[in-house]
Design a protein that fits this description.
With 112 residues, the chain is mainly alpha-helical. The protein has helices at residues 24-53, 58-78, and strands spanning 106-107, 110-111.
Length: 112
């Protein structure tokens, strides 16, 4: 018990366990924060430049730039979505693929 606690003023040793994966909520809040901060910061820079140079378009340019940079950073940090794994199910195992056919291979809507 006492050996688990570091002496006063010492740092606690790092765990040898693997780092835990962030939850879906953690990733969602990270993405939301990145998007909002990009829009607010670069939109604010554009707004300040608008007032300084007496123009009317730089706030929009800054907002779009901030959104674009935020999306780029999100893709770099979290990566693209992996495609779903190939399914090992056999064809004809879903209800849509097992439709009963009438006489002579016809369905209700016509020839198969």
């Amino acid at each position: 018990m006492a050996e688990d606690r570091p002496a006063r003023g010492d740092t606690r040793p790092r765990s040898t366990d693997q780092q835990r994966q962030p939850s879906g909520a953690d990733v969602g809040w990270g993405i939301t924060g990145t998007m909002l901060s990009g829009i607010i910061v670069w939109g604010g820079v554009g707004l300040l430049l608008d007032r300084w140079w007496e123009t009317r378009f730089l706030a929009l340019v800054g907002t779009i730039l901030g959104l674009t940079v935020a999306i780029y950073l999100i893709v770099v940090k979290y990566g693209a979505v992996d495609p779903p794994a190939k399914s090992s199910r056999r064809p004809g195992t879903t209800p849509a693929e097992r439709r009963p056919s009438g006489p002579h291979g016809q369905t209700q809507k016509g020839q198969r």
